[in-house]
Amino acid sequence: MRLTPTAEEAAFRDEVRGFLADSLPAALSHRVKHGLSVSRDDLQAWQAVLQARGWLAPNWPEEHGGTGWGVMRRHIFDLECRLANAPQTHGFNFGMLGPAIVRFGSEAQKSYYLPRILRGEDWWCQGYSEPEAGSDLASLRTRAERDGDDYLVNGGKIWTSFAEQANRIFCLVRTDPDAKPQQGISFLLIDLDSPGIEIRPLLAMNGRRLWNQVIFDDVRVPVDNRLGEENRGWTVAKRLLGDERIMVSRVSENKRLLALLQEVAAAEPCAGGLLIDDGEFRRRIAGLERRLTALEMSSLRLLSQAEAGRPIGAEPSMLKLLGSQLVQAMDEALCAAVGYFTAPDNREYLFHGANEQPLGPAHAVALMSNYLHHRGFTIAGGSTEVQYNILAKQTLEL
Ligand SMILES: Cc1cc2nc3c(=O)[nH]c(=O)nc-3n(C[C@H](O)[C@H](O)[C@H](O)COP(=O)(O)OP(=O)(O)OC[C@H]3O[C@@H](n4cnc5c(N)ncnc54)[C@H](O)[C@@H]3O)c2cc1C
């Protein structure tokens, strides 16, 4: 296991830093740093800059327009982008669906969908969860029945992030109700403007439209839009999480939050001095830094393991758990640092660009909204309890 970058990795890191310093618009990084919403247009413009540099799809193979980087380079790139407050690219497009199409798509699907993703023409969302199928995803009930060259889809998805911005949805649907739960599922690529689809908003605790419900009523989907074999959708879905599982530790995001916390503590007054000089708060920051260092080392150990082609066990569950809990602890410290300036409700300003200036210092404006948003990090992608179950079974053999 290596904890320090090789000379080649250090040179790559410097190259990424140089690129970000030259190419990341200051106004955009200001929005990311202060937790203001980034519109799809702004994100698309940034993705076009990355695409021009050839760095838009770090985990795709070169022949499909990706970088072909190994996990270490991807880690360095992600870290530098987060520390520079670059917006994250649309994860469903680049982290999930793209690699799944590369692996399971027909030649026609690859040549149609992958360039559209790179050009920003398609914006995907993920239709997995249902009201009765979250942690136990294999119990999903949305039906797809063959009707000639189409499937007829009926049912509904819930907690669908970004459906209001997306033009397509990748969905797990049940194609064989008589098979064992995981064996009767297929993976469909569906146009969201197909007749029979209704998208209903769901608001999160911070007032933001974070999710949607997507209802399917006799929606026709061509059989050609199935990714992978019929009734083998579970394999596609598992692969789709594939090597993204090893990038789940949120080390980069936690480093960004720690830097913000140190900056905020150095600006906030406390007992005639500054918060950064308060012994108790310094200890709190040091405790978070210690947890982050342990997380980073564990994450690097896993990355080295993956790079060397060694099998990966339950470590991603541990990293997902610790990384998401650490984000929440960073949020709590940030809110504590700012105190009552977390109280004003700035949602208009944050999400819709109100023309009135919010109360309090700029670094305080989005803290409570982010705190509320990040509560979901210990649920999305597998809840804390589910990760504990995996660790108990695979690591402790309970
Ligand atoms: C921010 C956010 C974004 C999301 N985006 C998407 C998206 O884009 N697309 C999508 O398809 N889904 C999305 N989801 C949904 C997410 O995948 C589910 O919320 C998650 O899988 C949990 O399912 P559930 O909400 O149905 O909870 P449930 O599975 O009903 O769990 C309820 C509670 O019971 C606990 N529990 C469940 N099973 C066990 C068990 N076996 N042992 C012990 N405890 C258990 C859970 O930990 C939880 O505390 C998102 C969720 C969040 C929070």
Topology diagram in text:
Elements: H1 7-23, H2 26-33, H3 40-53, H4 71-83, H5 91-104, H6 107-118, E1 124-127, E2 143-147, E3 150-157, E4 168-174, E5 185-191, E6 197-203, E7 209-222, E8 226-227, H7 233-241, H8 251-267, E9 269-270, E10 273-274, H9 279-307, H10 315-338, H11 347-352, H12 367-374, H13 384-394
Parallel strand pairs: 1-4
Antiparallel strand pairs: 2-3, 3-7, 4-5, 5-8, 6-7, 9-10
Helix pairs in contact: 1-4, 4-8, 5-6, 5-7, 8-9, 8-10, 9-10, 10-12, 10-13
The chain binds flavin-adenine dinucleotide.
List keywords for this structure.
398 residues, alpha+beta, Butyryl-CoA Dehydrogenase, subunit A, domain 2, Butyryl-CoA Dehydrogenase, subunit A, domain 3, 3 domains, 4-stranded mixed sheet, 4-stranded antiparallel sheet, 10 strands, 46% helix, binds flavin-adenine dinucleotide
